[in-house]
Every structure is written in structure tokens, then in C-alpha cells.
């Protein structure tokens, strides 16, 4: 239904449009309150979702501290520049290890006898099949004695073609090919083969490439010819006086939890490695844990005051209290005679403003005194926290999910009520406008009658 045309104040001089709006505003206060409640609910839901995300981030950080930070180790080395070896540790037993690198591992290398003047010119040689189709075969033998055939057609029987064909099988053979330009004039190239790994193979320490008769690389068709060889070598080293040999320079099985990267051999040089608890790593992990809790708490506190979206929210307040208790309290399962039994004994404390404080000096002193007892407190605390966090944050049935579902239901109901109220107000507007229109018409008629009577005098 179209609204009546407004002839505001033509007869009465009344601001009828303003009067209509004032009446509707007064009658619509209930709807405004519903809209305000809906907006507050939406803000509360957003804050709760953020709270859930931040709580899960706190859980991840707590898990990292409990499950891996305590197994992290620091390694100090007398080889300050890592000239002979470098070392990292994770879970290795604290202690001192003396390492002597006698020989670093290296791979085998072969250089073809003759140089060619071009990457794309034919290498020549004898047709391997002998039927005139132009098939040229080369035989590559790796350090394990495994031989593979590298076949070239007349079109790619070139130095570049041979290189590419060898590299196409490198994943299987463990041998890759490169071409080195030996002259600045760009007319002298040599083929170089190298093993992709280090160490000797089961059949020896060299690779071979056998060519067909007449090829321009000088490769014999019956053997290795005059190829220049660099032999593969295994790494030779000792740890605390025990002589060891490995095919790789990255050694993970000499000392449990310790990775050695051998770089250069010198049997006169002894490198002393000292493995200890990664104190700085633990300190950093604890600081991160406390920072994440404080961010979670601050987001709640900033929105829980009078008029805040989280004001009066006892669920979130209870969750924060429980989480703080997991971090500072005594978890179940700690032995009565344990050196340390709670997070509060390890430098964690509740400040006056509700945030967590962290005394890193007290924490590191405890780590130095009894790292096992410190680790036990946080491991057991995290185990309990993990179970609780899953209960709270579960998308389908967790405490926070239930609150969000309740908010969504309430806002859906408010939307229905707001729509109904708006429809009623729209009808009320039409009725008021009609009434004022009739009033203007009646007053106009009375004024006209008065003027007529006046004219008779």
C-alpha cells in the first residue's frame, strides 16, 4: 500500500512528518533494544571465536614445550669455525665427545679423455646395432658395479645429448654428468661424471663410461680407456677414541641424538663437543607460553567490563582460571618426593592484574638442578590441559561451541522479532500519515468555512 502524499502543515502549520517520526521512534524503542542486543551478541560471538583460536594456539605452544623443548640440546664446540665438523643435538645425553676427522667422505669423479669442440656436433662412433639406423650405445658402470646402457640416436649423438641422457637416469644410477668448458675461446668441452652421493660403493670407488669405437671422446669400447678418475672415499673418524667409518659426511648413528657433519680431515686436530640442556631454548619456549596466556587473558579482560561484550561471561572466566591452574598448579601424578611439584615452584606466578609472571632466573636454576623433575611437571600439566582444551574447543560439542550455538539461536529469534516489529511500525506509519492527512483536510475545510462566514458580514 502506497503512503499518502504529505501536505505537511498546509492548514495546521504543524510539522506532521516530524511528529510521525517522533511517535514511531518512541514506539520503536523495543526494536532498537533488540537490534542493540543482536549487535552485542554478534560481537560476543566474534570474541569467543577469537578466544577459541587463541586457546588452541596456547595449547600448541604448551605441547611444544612439554614434548620437544626439554629434549632440545645445545652443542658447544672447540672448533669455533666448524672447520673440521659441525654438530647438532636433539635428545642426546649430556656429556663431552672428542671427535677426530681423519678423512671426509667424497664421491667418485670421471673426466673423459678427449675434449670436443662443440656441444652439438656429432660424436661419431660406430653404429651399435649395425643396421644403419644410427644407434650409438654407451655403457655406464657405477661404484656398485651396476651397468646401464645409454642409447643415443643420430640426432642426439652429441656431447650435450650424452650429458642429458646420462642425467635422465641419474636417479637410478646415482651418477650425473656435467660439461666443462676448458678454453675461453669456447671451442673445447669435456664431459665430467660425478656420483650424486659420497663414499665407496659395493664394487669399488670408481665410475666408468665405455664408448663405441671411433667416438670423439676417446672412450674405449672395451673398457675405461684413459679416463681420468678421482676415487670415492668413505669418511674416517673417531668418537671418544673409537674408530668409525661411514659413506656419508652426515652421521646420525655414531652417538644417539647427535648429528655430526664432517667437513675436512686432519688427524692431528681433536674437536671437543659439549652437549647440554638448551637453556636459552627452554627459556624462550616458557616466555612464549606465558605471552600467549597473557594475550588470551587481556582480550577477555578488555571486553568484560561494564557494557563489554563479554561482561558477566562466567564461562570464559572459569576457563581462564582453569588454564592458569594447569600452568601454575601441581598436576596429578607427581611423586611426593619430587624436587619440583608445580609450575609455581618453577618461576610461574599470578600477578595482581590477573596475568602470569615468569621468573626466568628461578626457572633456569631449577633446570640446572633437576631438568628431569622440571620436565615431569610440564609434561603432566600439559597432559591434563590437553584433555581439558579438547573438551572446551571441540567444534561440535565443546563448551565454546555450545555458547556460540546459543548466541546464533538467540539472534535468529531476534531477527524474526525485529522483522515483525518493523512490519508493524511500517503499518503504523501509514496509519499516522493518513490521520494527519485527514486532520489537515478537516482544518482546511473549517478555515474555508470561516472565511465564507466572514465575507457575509
Notes on the structure:
The protein is α+β, with helices and mostly antiparallel strands. It is 43% helix and 20% strand. It has an eight-stranded antiparallel beta sheet with strand order 12-11-3-15-1-2-14-13. A four-stranded antiparallel beta sheet has the order 7-8-4-10. A three-stranded antiparallel beta sheet has the order 6-5-9, with helices on one face. Helix 2 runs antiparallel to helix 5. The longest helix is centred in the last third of the chain and has 58 residues, at 399-456.
What are the defining features of this structure?
9 helices, eight-stranded antiparallel sheet, 457 residues, alpha+beta
Give a short summary of the structure.
The protein is of the alpha+beta class and 457 residues long.
Helix content: 40-55%
Strand order of the largest sheet: 12-11-3-15-1-2-14-13
Report the average pLDDT across residues: 91
Radius of gyration: 42 Å
- Low-pLDDT segments, ≥5 res: none
- Silhouette: elongated
Q: Specify the biggest β-sheet.
A: 8 strands, antiparallel
Q: Which percent band covers the strand fraction?
A: 15-25%
Number of strands: 17
Structural class: alpha+beta
How large is the count of helical segments? 9
Order of helices and strands: HHEEEEEEHHEEEEEEEEEHHEEHHH
Span between termini: 46 Å
Amino acid at each position: 500500500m502506497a503512503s499518502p502524499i504529505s501536505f505537511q502543515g498546509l492548514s495546521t502549520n504543524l510539522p506532521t512528518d516530524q511528529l510521525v517520526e517522533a511517535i514511531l521512534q518512541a514506539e520503536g524503542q523495543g526494536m532498537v533494544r533488540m537490534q542493540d542486543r543482536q549487535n552485542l551478541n554478534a560481537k560476543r560471538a566474534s570474541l569467543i571465536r577469537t578466544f577459541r583460536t587463541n586457546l588452541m594456539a596456547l595449547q600448541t605452544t604448551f605441547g611444544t614445550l612439554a614434548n620437544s623443548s626439554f629434549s632440545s640440546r645445545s652443542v658447544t664446540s672447540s672448533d669455533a669455525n666448524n672447520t673440521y665438523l659441525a654438530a647438532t643435538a636433539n635428545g642426546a645425553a649430556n656429556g663431552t665427545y672428542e671427535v677426530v676427522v681423519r678423512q671426509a667422505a667424497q664421491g667418485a669423479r670421471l673426466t673423459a679423455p678427449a675434449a670436443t669442440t662443440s656441444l652439438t656436433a656429432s660424436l661419431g662412433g660406430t653404429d651399435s646395432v649395425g643396421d644403419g639406423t644410427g644407434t650409438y650405445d654407451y655403457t655406464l658402470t657405477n661404484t656398485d658395479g651396476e651397468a646401464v646402457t645409454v642409447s643415443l640416436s643420430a640426432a642426439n649423438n652429441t656431447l650435450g645429448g650424452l650429458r642429458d641422457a646420462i642425467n635422465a637416469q641419474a636417479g637410478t644410477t646415482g651418477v650425473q654428468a656435467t660439461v666443462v668448458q676448458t678454453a675461453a675461446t669456447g671451442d673445447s668441452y669435456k664431459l665430467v661424471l660425478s656420483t650424486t652421493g659420497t663414499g665407496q660403493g659395493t664394487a669399488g670407488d670408481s665410475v666408468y663410461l665405455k664408448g663405441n669405437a671411433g667416438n670423439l671422446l676417446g672412450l674405449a669400447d672395451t673398457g675405461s680407456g684413459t679416463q681420468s678418475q678421482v676415487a670415492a672415499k668413505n669418511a674416517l673418524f673417531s668418537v671418544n677414541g673409537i674408530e668409525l667409518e661411514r659413506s656419508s659426511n652426515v652421521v646420525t648413528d655414531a652417538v644417539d641424538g647427535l648429528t655430526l657433519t664432517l667437513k675436512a680431515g686432519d688427524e692431528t686436530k681433536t674437536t671437543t663437543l659439549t652437549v647440554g640442556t638448551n637453556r636459552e631454548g627452554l627459556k624462550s619456549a616458557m616466555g612464549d607460553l606465558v605471552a600467549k596466556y597473557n594475550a588470551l587473558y587481556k582480550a577477555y579482560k578488555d571486553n568484560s567490563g561494564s557494557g563489554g561484550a563479554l561482561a558477566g561471561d562466567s564461562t570464559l572466566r572459569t576457563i581462564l582460571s582453569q588454564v592458569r591452574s594447569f600452568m601454575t598448579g601441581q598436576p596429578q601424578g607427581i611423586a611426593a618426593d619430587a624436587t619440583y611439584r608445580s609450575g609455581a615452584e618453577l618461576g610461574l606466578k599470578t600477578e595482581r592484574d590477573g596475568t602470569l609472571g615468569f621468573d626466568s632466573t628461578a626457572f633456569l636454576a631449577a633446570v640446572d638442578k633437576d631438568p628431569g623433575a622440571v620436565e615431569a611437571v610440564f609434561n603432566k600439566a600439559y597432559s591434563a590441559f590437553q584433555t581439558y582444551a579438547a573438551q572446551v574447543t571441540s567444534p561440535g560439542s565443546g563448551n565454546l561451541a555450545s555458547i556460540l550455538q546459543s548466541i546464533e539461536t538467540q539472534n535468529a529469534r531476534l531477527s524474526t522479532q525485529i522483522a515483525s516489529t518493523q512490519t508493524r511500525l511500517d503499518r503504523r506509519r501509514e496509519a499516522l500519515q493518513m490521520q494527519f492527512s485527514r486532520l489537515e483536510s478537516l482544518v482546511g475545510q473549517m478555515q474555508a468555512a470561516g472565511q465564507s462566514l466572514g465575507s457575509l458580514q
